[in-house]
């Protein structure tokens, strides 16, 4: 999860300063910026839910992803609306679950078709439903960010849903989730204990090279285990997969961090105490899901739909 400080001069979508973030009540936090007890409680609860679904009925993962993406779209819509952006809510919030669930009967074709349809409908919807009562204003800006959100959440999330529909069953999901969790824990621990050298202070001031090293070590260890156990592949592949997922997870954190800094906000929302909003948890997972899908394709695993 990205751990940012609030930018000193937050701006709205129209270029005007906003004090929306300043109104958020302060919370007692750890050195790394989290309400640690709340973060642990929420993390354990979410982890238990995912484990239960994967063990009982792995295809329930697709339904879980659909629900999460719908909430994420709503969260992003509210945040962007507060900053003066006008996104077409109806096509996005309908397209997110339909695109994801279409993976069950139609596989890759369902996700790609759902994403493309959502993108087209969103562009047309914004043209005629601009919320301003007159001719469209800021159409290019709003259409561009709509397509960014649709790609970031709906397409990447849909790809994440597909991971459970290969001949390896829930194996790729275990690899994805455990690598990202290990990376997050390793980075948090190393950053708190040893973090001295900022990694990209202009984007995420609290992210350190020491924390990245901790993420890399923990992520590789987790991936060696999961790739060997769940995919029955070489531990050497686990090393490569772990390194790739740590890099992708870190880049996902940074993308969301810059997104929030552009909006002048600290968290995407308040749905998950100790973590912020749902997107503050999905940031690294969405990018990493694409990486795992690429690995699945290279290994030649067949789809089961």
Automatic annotation (TrEMBL):
Where are its TM segments located?
36-55, 61-77, 84-104, 140-165, 171-191, 212-231, 237-255, 285-303
List where Polar residues composition bias occurs. Answer: 11-21
One GO-annotated biological process of the protein: CDP-diacylglycerol biosynthetic process
E.C. no: 2.7.7.41
Q: Where is this region: Disordered?
A: 1-32
Question: Chief localization class?
Answer: membrane
Which of the seven top EC classes does this enzyme belong to?
transferase
InterPro entries membership: PC_trans
Q: Which catalysed reactions does the entry list for this protein?
A: a 1,2-diacyl-sn-glycero-3-phosphate + CTP + H(+) = a CDP-1,2-diacyl-sn-glycerol + diphosphate
Q: List the molecular function annotations (GO) for this entry.
A: phosphatidate cytidylyltransferase activity
Q: Which Pfam families match?
A: CTP_transf_1
Keyword line: Cell membrane, Lipid biosynthesis, Lipid metabolism, Membrane, Nucleotidyltransferase, Phospholipid biosynthesis, Phospholipid metabolism, Transferase, Transmembrane, Transmembrane helix
Looking up PANTHER family in the UniProt record yields: PHOSPHATIDATE CYTIDYLYLTRANSFERASE
Which family does this protein fall into? Belongs to the CDS family.
| Protein name, UniProt field | Phosphatidate cytidylyltransferase
Species this protein is from: Hoyosella subflava (strain DSM 45089 / JCM 17490 / NBRC 109087 / DQS3-9A1) (Amycolicicoccus subflavus)
For this protein's source organism, the top of the classification is:
Bacteria, Bacillati, Actinomycetota, Actinomycetes, Mycobacteriales
